Amino acid sequence: MTVAGGSRQIPKPIAGVSNFVDERIGAGNFLKRNLRKVFPDHWSFLLGEIALYSFIILLLTGTFLTFFFKPGMGHVEYTGSYRALNGVMMSEAYASSLSISFDVRGGLLMRQMHHWAALLFIGGMMVHMLRVFFTGAYRKPRELNWLIGVLLLTLALFEGLTGYSLPDDLLSGAGLRITEGVMMSLPLVGTWITFFLFGGEYPGEDVIPRFYSLHILLIPGILLGLITAHLILMWVQKHTQMPGRGRTNENVVGSPLYPAFMIKSGAYFMFTFAVIAGLGTFAQINPIWLFGPYTPADISAGSQPDFYMGFLEGSLRLMPSWEINLFGTAGGTLALSVLIPALVPLGIIITGLVLYPFIERWVTGDNREHHVVDRPRNNPHRTSIGMTAITFYGVLWLLGANDEIAAFFQVPLNWTTYIGRFLIFAGPLAAYIVTYRICLGLQRRDAEVIGHGVESGVIKRLPHGEYIEVHAPASKDIAEHVRGKQPIPMISGGTDGDGIPPKGMRGPLGRIRATMSRAYGGEKVPLEEDREHGEAAREGRHAEIGTGGDDRGSLPG
Fold first, then answer.
1. What is the pTM of this model?
2. Domain containing 467: what range?
3. How far is the C-alpha of 129 from the C-alpha of 123, rounded, in Å?
4. Could you list the residue ranges that cross the membrane (predicted)?
5. Residues 450-488: pLDDT tens digits?
């Protein structure tokens, strides 16, 4: 069912529920207003729900695991069902994790579902934020919700780190050791933070209990509050929608919350739950019994973190062994080989996400409200910047497994490091250039659709022997979708009749801003048919593919 945002008709199911509630608690008007809220139908608007439903599954499975997990670092002798480790001394945390896996009914399924849900939670947020970024859905009035989303992603990374370390197996211990090294490299406060977290010299006796408190109490509480605020803002503000027929900044075209969107969301939740349950059942993840208990003197070959921390691992592996000795031996050593890869890549990504909406508004001077989003091709610079960031992340993520790559492809490990150092600079630059050209090519294709129509597949021979392909006008839905393109705003950096630049454009910063605005904004490929092609389209012919003696034909575009 498609309902325009301004429709006044109240469906019977909504009226019945509203009357039932209103007669008891006087909330009829509230329900009538909110149950009729319209949600867009485009599939990409459901990407954020993957993260939301994964978070719900995380809470449910995590609650189950808390009944059986013991967050202690006291040494015990293992006497459980996994005979390969019988008699081995280990921490209480690791022993309880083994017990959950082998002795608690459904425990291994819950552990694996929890782990897969965590990966899907972070992956869903990443994909959702990419959709928001590439379509420009972060623009006014949604900047605050964008910032909440960035904070949610940042906290989710730390939530994943604390949960990953709780089983106290050899693999998670290797990651914890890297975390300790990163904290120790921080100038001035590194030693204090490390002693505070670990309760003394590494590994101490307190890190697992403290991570446990962070993982099940503090960070989830903040995440729950931020998700609630995120949903409230989304509910109060008008939904964004893709350009198309009947879609404007004043309405929303889609399905009402009740019953259409509720049914769709309920089915989508069940689908998400089924996928996570299927992965937890059939796809083994984090088999801690194979790694053994963590001891600071041991390390396993081929250790890899979960994907969301892989880019930090890659930055550590690519970074040269640089350090600065401050004030000689009396000062200290600034370990740039740890400090830079631990802080700079994450700082670039998070800071860029936080600042980009405001930088774009400053460059374009666009202070309008936007409720119809952009197609990514129609803002080629923004799309290219996004692909640059993805490539930067992807190179670091890939090189986080350079030892596995070297072993599998039988190439020297140093080669993978040197190639990675080259790609970390050349890859994002190439991604920007290629993406920009692709966006312009797609815009030209849209202009051809509007100016010439679409290929019909019908080849026609004209009386003089020329062969042509007949084009048909684009359907109204396609045409309106393409015509939804809006020119990117620009700031005028010119002068008035007296040769005086406008206020704010008179200094060096103003001139830089005007130059950036001209490069970033404007119409790159107008949706205008040229006269020759326009006449061809009106005559019902286009894209000659051959002639009987005249070589004027061309291949279809």
1. 0.87
2. 456-520
3. 10
4. 50-69, 115-134, 146-166, 178-199, 211-236, 267-285, 334-359, 419-439
5. 888 888 888 989 898 888 888 888 888 888 989 989 899
